[in-house]
Structures are given as structure tokens and as C-alpha cells.
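Ops channel
N.P.: pipeline sanity check, posting one input/output pair.
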């Protein structure tokens, strides 16, 4: 069995790789250090520099099989560009628009199209990169990550996971693996372990349906979170529940920083209003934002609660 990569602009077949049919993980990457004779394949930064192995960038292809261009001259100029000096078989190369990492062993790992980025709490996140991080966990056979509109109005990520046969569903362990590899804002807010993934009419994963399912789940759990919030007596538990709800970040811990976790000025203002309406305390937004983590913020709130009520 072979895994073959190559766009139509490079005559379809560029980098073949022999696969192990016994592999239980996602399809293995194509070997990029040995493209077909007459081709060159490398990873470029957006400014045109070739990036070192291990860093992500755009896949670019050059060689004898490269197309002359498109009917549209403007598009040809954008996608077919001069090759970096010293590349064999190439005076010009094709910008594939595919994002990938060339591993130290020469294998090319694809992270999806370059333009598949979403903004989560002010930070750019790439679902394909989160999928790759999830699939590094030994129990995950395949991961599909989709953005969805959370109940609080913000955009969040949901992960749908197929497990390796016999593996146990352990959300905390999987998320711990992800946190070590992606931005905090890119950690999925919803994780579901599924037996199958829905397909659309083209035979591809129906990401739109998965996004709707994730949104429906969060809207139902929002009611439960609100009830927990109103019943909480412990200051830290109350604050943690409040921040999880306001930021749509169900995995926040006392060690997390509020602003780094997506606490915008609007979210902080809402938190201050909530604290003042719940406890008769004096507290300003600037004080909230300068706390190193939620535990410190909870300690500040507890201290203010112990002070005489403002007149």
C-alpha cells in the first residue's frame, strides 16, 4: 500500500511512501526527502525562507512535472514563484497552500490547508494542528476538531475522537497531551469519544454537523453550570465556575491566568459585575487583570469578603 502526495499542478504524484498495512493510526505521512526523480519538495516560511526540519510551513514543489500555470495570469503569478537558490530540478516552484512539518527523519506530516485558521479568544488556532496534537496520544486513532459557536457567544473548538481498539476513554489524559503542544486557547472546550464519524454526500467527514452537535451540547450544559454557580459557597470554586462560564473554558484550573485564557476586557467587566452583585465587595477590573492566576484572584476576593462591607 502506498500513500502518495501531489497536487494537480505538479502532475498529481510527487512523493510516494510505502505504508505499513498493520498500522492502526492515521495514514502515515509521505516521505519528502525522496520525491520522484526530477522533483524537489521543501517547506517554506511565508516570507520565502526554507524552514528547518521540525518547523511548520508551506509545502512547495518544483520539477519537470510542474504545470505551466493557470488561465488566469494573476493567479499564476501568485502560485508559481521563483525557486530558492540551489534547489535541484527547479527554476520555479508551486505554492501548494498545504501546511506541513518535515520531521527529522524526512517524513512530511500534513497539518491541513494554510487558510484553515480560526480565532479563539484573540489567538489564532488551527484545527488541523490540534488534531495532530490529539493523535500523538497513544489511545487516539483519529481526531477531528471543529470550531463552533459556544453558548456564551465566543468561538471554541470541539474534538471528536476515535479510539484505538481496547483503549479507555480518558479525557484528562488526552487533554494533558494537547496542552503541552498547543496554545491554551486552542485546547478543545468539548471532547467527545465516538464510535464513528458522520460523512457528508462527498464521503468526507461532515464537520458542519459535528459543529452543530458541539454547540447543542454546550447550550444544554450551560444551564447546569449556572445552577452550580449560584449554589457555590467556596470563593475559589465560585470564581472558577464563573470564569469557566464567562470564557467558555470548562477546563480552567486555579493555576490558569485569566487574561491568557481569553479574558477580554468585556469578560473581565462581566466578572467584576458578577462579583459585586454576589459579594458586597470593592474590586476593580485592573485588580482582577493583574493577578497571576485564578487562585490569587480568589484569595483577593476572599480577603475583600472578610473586610467590612462598603457603605
Amino acid at each position: 500500500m502506498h500513500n502518495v502526495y501531489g497536487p494537480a499542478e505538479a502532475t498529481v504524484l510527487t512523493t510516494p511512501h510505502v505504508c505499513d498495512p498493520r498500522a492502526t493510526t492515521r495514514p502515515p505521512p509521505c516521505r519528502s526527502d525522496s520525491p520522484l526523480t526530477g522533483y524537489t519538495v521543501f517547506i517554506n516560511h511565508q516570507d520565502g525562507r526554507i524552514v528547518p526540519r521540525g518547523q511548520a510551513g508551506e509545502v512547495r514543489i518544483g520539477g519537470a512535472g510542474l504545470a505551466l500555470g493557470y488561465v488566469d495570469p494573476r493567479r499564476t503569478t501568485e502560485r508559481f514563484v521563483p525557486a530558492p537558490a540551489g534547489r535541484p530540478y527547479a527554476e520555479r516552484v508551486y505554492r501548494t497552500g498545504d501546511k506541513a512539518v518535515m520531521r527529522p527523519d524526512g517524513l512530511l506530516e500534513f497539518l491541513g490547508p494554510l487558510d484553515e485558521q480560526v480565532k479563539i479568544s484573540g489567538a489564532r488556532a488551527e484545527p488541523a494542528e490540534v488534531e495532530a496534537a490529539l493523535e500523538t496520544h497513544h489511545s487516539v486513532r483519529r481526531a477531528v476538531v471543529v470550531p463552533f459557536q459556544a453558548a456564551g457567544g465566543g468561538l471554541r473548538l470541539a474534538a471528536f475522537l476515535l479510539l484505538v481498539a481496547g483503549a479507555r476513554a480518558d479525557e484528562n489524559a488526552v487533554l494533558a497531551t494537547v496542552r503541552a503542544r498547543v496554545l491554551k486557547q486552542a485546547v478543545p472546550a468539548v471532547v467527545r469519544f465516538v464510535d464513528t464519524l458522520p460523512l457528508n454526500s462527498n464521503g468526507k467527514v461532515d464537520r458542519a454537523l459535528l459543529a452543530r452537535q458541539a454547540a447543542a451540547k454546550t447550550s444544554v450544559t450551560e444551564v447546569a453550570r449556572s445552577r452550580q454557580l449560584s449554589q457555590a459557597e467556596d470563593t475559589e470554586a465560585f470564581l472558577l465556575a464563573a470564569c469557566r462560564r464567562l470564557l467558555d473554558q470548562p477546563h480552567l484550573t486555579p493555576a490558569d491566568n485569566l487574561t491568557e485564557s481569553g479574558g477580554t476586557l468585556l469578560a473581565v467587566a462581566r466578572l467584576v459585575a458578577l462579583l459585586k452583585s454576589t459579594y458586597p465587595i470593592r474590586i476593580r477590573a485592573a485588580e482582577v487583570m493583574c493577578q497571576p492566576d485564578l487562585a490569587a484572584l480568589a484569595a483577593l476576593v476572599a480577603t475583600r469578603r472578610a473586610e467590612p462591607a462598603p457603605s
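N.P.: looks fine end to end. Residues 220-233 have pLDDT under 50 and may be disordered.
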